[in-house]
TrEMBL record:
<feature type="domain" description="CBM21">
    <location>
        <begin position="115"/>
        <end position="227"/>
    </location>
</feature>
<dbReference type="GO" id="GO:0008157">
    <property type="term" value="F:protein phosphatase 1 binding"/>
</dbReference>
<dbReference type="InterPro" id="IPR005036">
    <property type="entry name" value="CBM21_dom"/>
</dbReference>
<dbReference type="InterPro" id="IPR038175">
    <property type="entry name" value="CBM21_dom_sf"/>
</dbReference>
<dbReference type="GO" id="GO:0005979">
    <property type="term" value="P:regulation of glycogen biosynthetic process"/>
</dbReference>
<dbReference type="GO" id="GO:2001069">
    <property type="term" value="F:glycogen binding"/>
</dbReference>
<dbReference type="Pfam" id="PF03370">
    <property type="entry name" value="CBM_21"/>
</dbReference>
<dbReference type="InterPro" id="IPR050782">
    <property type="entry name" value="PP1_regulatory_subunit_3"/>
</dbReference>
<protein>
    <submittedName>
        <fullName>PPR3D phosphatase</fullName>
    </submittedName>
</protein>
<dbReference type="GO" id="GO:0000164">
    <property type="term" value="C:protein phosphatase type 1 complex"/>
</dbReference>
Amino acid sequence: PSDKQISSCDPALRPIIRRRARSLPTSPERKRAAVRCQVPGCLSRMNRVRFADALGLELTEVKVFQSGEDPSIPLHVLSRLSINSDLWYSSLDLEFTMQCLVPDFQQPADCMDFSSRLQTQQVCLERVTSSDLGLSGTIHVRNIAFEKRVSVRYTFNQWKSLHELSAQWHSSIPEKNGQDQVDVFTFFLPVPPFLLQVCSVVQFAARYQVNGREYWDNNRGKNYSLTCRTHPLKMPRECEESWIHFI
């Protein structure tokens, strides 16, 4: 029959086309992030994971766990957890040591005669602490006059050569008698790392200049000395897991 004889009520026939699923379009930033591997000879691209439900597709399988039912863990995952556990326990037995300067004297502020020494000498070291960068300390001086200078004279080689640095005013406090005032000065003495060798010694004394006179606190003629010693270190609990990853 001719085309004119075909009824206009018949539906138009269309070819069946199977469309392949396509990934969602990516933004320019994601396109730039999908760079090629930089290893020579490697032409692969970075892998990106897309889930079927995010694309509007059906999931291959849905697993429903009943109450009290434990999921099945692959053997290779269990073995890896066991290895990490062994490394964790072995890391607890590791010992570390470091060199630091240790005072060879009792901190003056902890001595019973600290106030009397200050009254006699006009100047007295209060306390000194050490770190990996150097020595920090505080010095007390009697407020004889407003204009004053406090410094620390020190040596690394048994006074074959010496250095001196100025201390900085920190605060003023009343003396125990409540009538006079004491000025507190602070200082920082840098110690080069190459000098931190076992048994090396740093010595120093405090110098106070006021009203054209000077006063010293040299630990009753013995000077204040600190000796470099080796100390064991314990690994902090928060660092143990990161140490496993380092291994």
